[in-house]
Design goal:
This protein has one helix at residues 23-40, and strands at 44-46, 53-57, 60-65, 68-70. With 74 residues, the protein is an alpha+beta fold. It has one domain (16-70). The protein binds protoporphyrin IX containing FE.
Length: 74
Amino acid sequence: MRFDRGPSLNTAFGLGAHRCLGIHLARHQLEIALELVTALAPPFRLAPGAAPRMRTLGNVWGYDTLPLVFERGA
Ligand code: HEM
């Protein structure tokens, strides 16, 4: 695995005529899973002074960097 590799076109759900029919269900399931994980995680916030950097690849967007600070769990 190369963490220093450059961005590439994201084809996780395929392209063109055979693009995944379940893309919206799969993304919604991931959204629910992430909500559950963040509900279990200790409270967190954006690191002070941090500047999150976003990027887009076609219609897919995400963060290159999103520095967070986690508070100690109770
Ligand atoms: C993370 C989850 C998923 C990933 C990464 C994924 C990925 C893909 C990819 C790459 C293709 C294209 C295959 C090709 O070009 O031959 C595809 C096609 C397809 N996917 Fe998914 N898929 C996911 C979830 C789902 C779900 C949840 C469903 C249905 C409930 C689904 C239904 C389909 C169908 C029916 C096709 C065929 C579309 C066609 O050939 O016209 N997928 N998927």
